[in-house]
Amino acid sequence: MSGVFNILGNTVKELAVSRFQKPTLVQELAIPKIIEGKNVLVIAETGSGKTESTLLPIFSKLTSAEYAPIAVLYVTPLKSLNRDLLDRLLWWCNKLDIDVAVRHGDTNQYERKMQVEHPPHILISTMEQIGAMIVGKRFREHLKNVKFIVIDEIHEVVNSKRGVQLTLSLERLKKLCGNPQIICLSATVGNPDLAAKFIFSENNYEIVNAISPKSIELKVESPYPTKEDEIIAEKIFIGGSVVARLRKIRDLILEHRSTLAFTNTREAAEILSSRLRLLDKNFPHDIHHSSLSKEVRIKAEKDFKEEKLKCLIATSSLQLGIDIGTVDLVLQYQSPRTVTQLTQRVGRSGHGIGKLSKGIIIASEGDDIFESCVISRKALRGELEPLRIHQKSFDVLTQQIIGFLIENYSIDPKETYETIKKAYPFRDLKEEEFSNLVNFLDTQLRLVFIDNGIKRRRKAFEYYFDNLSVIPDQKNYKVIDTTSNTFVGTLDEEFIASHGDVGSSFIVKGRPWKILSVEDGKVLVEGVEDIESAIPAWEGELIPVPFDVAQEVGILRREIKNMLEESLSNNEIIEKIKKKYPVSSQSTVRMIQLIKRQIKKYPLPDEKNIFIERFQDYVVLHALFGSLVNETLSRFISAILSAEHGEIVTSKTDPYRIILKGCNPEEIKKILFDYKPEDVEILLEKSLPRSSLFKFRFIHIAKRFGAISKKASFDTINLDRLIDVYWNSPIHKETLQEIFTEKLDLDKTKEILEKIQNKEININTFEGLSPLAELGFRYELQDVARPDRPEKEIFKIFKNRLLNSKVRLLCINCGKYSIVEIVKDIKELRCSHCQSKLIAVLKPHREEAQNIVKKWLKGVELIDEEKIKLEFIKKSADLVIDYGKDAAIVLAGRGIGPQTAIRVLYKPRRNEDDLFKHILEAEREFIKNKKYWQ
Question: Fewer CB within a 10 Å sphere, N or C end of the chain?
Fold first, then answer.
């Protein structure tokens, strides 16, 4: 019964049997190898007992021999996982008399001091904290005792710079403590061997792949609206199909005990939550994402675990193994975009051995259903995406070289280079590249100097501790709707750097907005309705859709088309698709209808057929190559066209199409046929450095190098000059390398160009806006978030805001009357002291105006600034004499003073609304132009 537990020490064995009765598959496979002292990558799904498969043999070793603390370093990618893991370990450690503690960025000074003076046997920490601990003089002595290193959730960091940093930190640790046994834990991962090599590099290792035949149930749903849904839709200004999806989500949550609902972005989580409250204001749910405070997140986790909530709406913040209790359903709102993402999320349900993991994707329309079907089929077959790792990251290497120098004032270049090469991402680092980087740190950044070895300069300390984390600090901007003066949402620096020009449009809260001004951490906007607002659209946090998924969407499109051309009935097509894909009948009907509408008048783009269609000033290139290839193709084509036209050709991409403005199909065809595949990289290396994508990445990489202050904001730096200064330097090269790794796919794009030129992929052109092209002009969240907001409603909101604005009424006849009043509540513009109608209307904060008027009435000499303000006050009062309350309404407008108010009031109007329309026009003009005269 106890199986592999028999090889554990007696006390640990007894506890294991009392806790589990019998070992799980992962425990059977992993425990013997860890007992033998082997380096192991353990792969198993969430809830399979993989944490204990690592800890039980380590507990057994700790209790059977004397190990000086710190014997075990347990590393996780998140502070929240540390908290969760500590609670889990305490049960075992208290019974085994083993000390355990947590150390991360939030650990207070007292706890840190105690950990130095009384080190625990097991220390749980984050990846970044290794860098801080290893340079502490007293703490280093304890780290020399480390015999076991456990790295949890390794799949989360292998493809990021955090992972690169971890590999170098491990090499530094090994130099300190010898050759510790390393155990990595991972959920399902696309290529396990690469994940293992990434951590173990040249060391021997074994992979324990313990993915058990756990039952997974998946379904893609996109319900049709009922009559009841249409009635609700009219009340809350959302489409009937959206209400149907919201109702389905609500019903599924109520049918299950505990539901985790995942969205792809924080914004989507907030919107979905607010829309569910529109259906039912007392609906028992909460939200959980990384922008919320730690206290709010912990409370949400606790309430969900105690079943005070039926549902938590989350982003990737709950994708990892945080213990949140029993979950019997995972909902995914809209396509999860990757197979790995869906697999990890659905794995949170049925959290336990032999339990069913149940997941339902609530897809919207069009591409979303096709994509969700493909990803679900791949998830059921375990077809995960391969990993893409960062190679030779010079910014991370810089920070680690300085780390070596914090440990020792002087280091030997040859020895340091050999240590660095042991880390897998740096296995191909040339000695010349290393020397060039060190010279750059000496001559340009002044972090080191070369004198019989590499030595640190004084500023090295500050630089090192400022850059313990490679995660960039993001400044957020508040988006303010000037029409209603209300807070719309937030945008991060990357958006402002990429799309933050005045006049450009973007999507937030599912609606298109036009930027009027960016100032003081705010983005002032107004709503727009035209199709142009789709370029550019902001995808922010969205994970790229892989090439293979987009290609299979093409295959599915073609299969439906073939069945329609064979005159199969809807029911026959539905049955055939449902045999291959886990999809509902209603969702299948939606896919069939879309293909029917497309092939009625237009050709069908699929995995082997590119179609280029022209609509007005737009060209839509239907290319089913996924996010990264389409982004690469788009930038390649735009760079050539922009050079030829002498002006920037704007573009927008998604996994299935590229939309360009200001060109024609023949130009694009010529580019795809005439340019060689190797031209792609050459052209992008030349054109990218002037792009906003490059500039934003450049700032963060320059910060990691210490070239600019960690606190510097992109809008305070002359970026073009800085890029010129560091042209072709390691900063410049690393920026390109990061973009090529994370945002683009050069190799696959070259392959696509070859296939086009070899006629393996066909290209044809046609005119018109086809149904599949129209999908590219839609907005990511419009279906959930965007109420029907015609101009009338926008105007109504503006008028309401203006009438509810506060103004200060000041008598300039006696100076004694100064009150703040809401515009709509103004009955009479007359002084209550002297009955004069000489009343100035001012902004409510203008308290000093009364003193200026009193000084003027007494004949006291005014300073120049006061004289200017007095003229303003007098002109305002003159307007009230001439126009009465209308003047007060106009002067309540944003940026409208007496001079502008005269023009507004002078304009002809047929009714009261015309006055408000003139005010709205004046406000827009003010916001647009104020930066020129401020």
Answer: C
pLDDT digits 0-9 by tens, 421-462: 999 999 999 999 999 999 999 999 999 999 999 999 999 999
394-463 is a CATH 3.30.420 domain:
no
Q: What is the pLDDT of residues 741-775, one digit of tens each?
A: 999 999 999 999 999 999 999 999 999 889 999 99
Give the start-to-end residue ranges of the domains of the chain. 3-209, 214-392+542-601, 394-463, 476-530, 602-784, 792-933
Q: Which two tokens stand for residue 84?
A: 């969760």
- Residue 633's Cβ-side half-sphere holds a number of Cα atoms within 13 Å equal to 35
Residues 24 and 353 sit within 8 Å (Cβ to Cβ): yes
SS (H, E, C) 79-98: HHHHHHHHHHHHHHHHHHCC
The C-alpha atoms of residue 475 and residue 458 are separated, in whole angstroms, by 29
Structural contact between residues 92 and 15, judged by C-beta atoms closer than 8 angstroms: yes
The pair phi, psi for residue 124, each rounded to 5°, is -95, 130
Give the architecture (CATH level 2) of 3-209.
Answer: 3-Layer(aba) Sandwich (3.40)
Pick the CATH number of 214-392+542-601 from 1.10.238.10, 3.40.50.720, 3.40.50.300, 3.40.190.10: 3.40.50.300
Token duo for residue 424: 């897998």
* Cα 543 to Cα 545: distance, rounded to the nearest angstrom: 7
What residues contact 889, with CB distance under 8 A and at least 6 apart? Answer: 802, 803, 823, 915, 916, 919
Residues recorded for the chain:
934
Give the 3-state secondary structure of 155-197: HHCCCCHHHHHHHHHHHHHHHHHCCCEEEEEECCCCCHHHHHH
Find all residues with CB under 8 Å of 223, minimum gap 6, and list them: 244, 245, 247, 248, 584, 586
pTM of the model: 0.80
